[in-house]
Design a protein that fits this description.
Rossmann fold, 5-stranded antiparallel sheet, 11 helices, 16 strands, globular, RCK_C
Amino acid sequence: MRIVIIGVGEVGFHVAKALSQEDHDIIVMDVDPSKCKRATESLDVIVVEGNGASPRILSMANVQDADYVLCLTRVDEVNLIASQQAHELGAKKIIARLRNQQYTTRDSIIKPEKFGIDLVIHPEKEACSEIVQLVRHSYATQVMDFEGGRIQMIGIRLDMDSPIIGKTVREICDEELEFKFGIITVLRDGESHVPWSDYEFKENDTAYFIVKTKSLESLMVYLGKEATKTNSIVILGGSKIGRSVAQELENEMSVRLIDNRRDKAEWLASNLKETMIIHGDGTDVELLKSENIKDADSFITVTESEQTNLLSGMLAHHLGVKQTVIHVSTT
């Protein structure tokens, strides 16, 4: 396939890297010469330096022949205009990254489909959804819903006491269980493996299963995992992601949110009715101790500073929190 990627920041760069390894014809463009230089030196792609919202630059990239155009700059308005231009020039499918979720609300004046966009991705919304799933399933490394939540794909790290350690896929299939599940892939030492019938599971494998949601608890028992319910979480950072996670979970469990800005903390307190808002520094060990962080089921760091997220996450882990979720945008 021929794919044009507009915007070669962290997201665009790694999307281009992944797609170029699958033998697609990739063209990337960006107005920033340093980002273009990085792509030229590191990726097997064609690089076009220029404004992705310009019809002339898009024509230079032969966007009219593209199977997909991915608009991934950090500016929503640029992505909208670039999508519209690519659509007018004849691109087959257009995917746009939009940070402002109001564009896809029912009463929005500006509709993405009017710009020729086939699929909208809200990065903060996607991050929130993944964090919420991980909190609800703290025993998993990854969770995805299918068929409206009736089926789940779940990643489980196999501990040394897991009953399936040393068993092959054939032996597992031969067991008479009261429920059915599929084994999709296994991650071992950083490499993915398709588990054929003679594949033997080992300690520290991360296995990915697909199962009906109603049978998930039975699968966890079979794998030797305790499907414990999350009752208490602490969120560091009143960012868009932090607010969204709190709103999603505050009626299910105890939620505390820490922010170091007093004005934002006051605003959060007036808008998140069921969440306890704490004004303070999440990297302050004494503050974390005073909040009994060791008793929390999950500690989620989603500030705008990656350094703060990493440091506070490590501190919380050291203090004994059961699960730590750290938001990092730079890979």
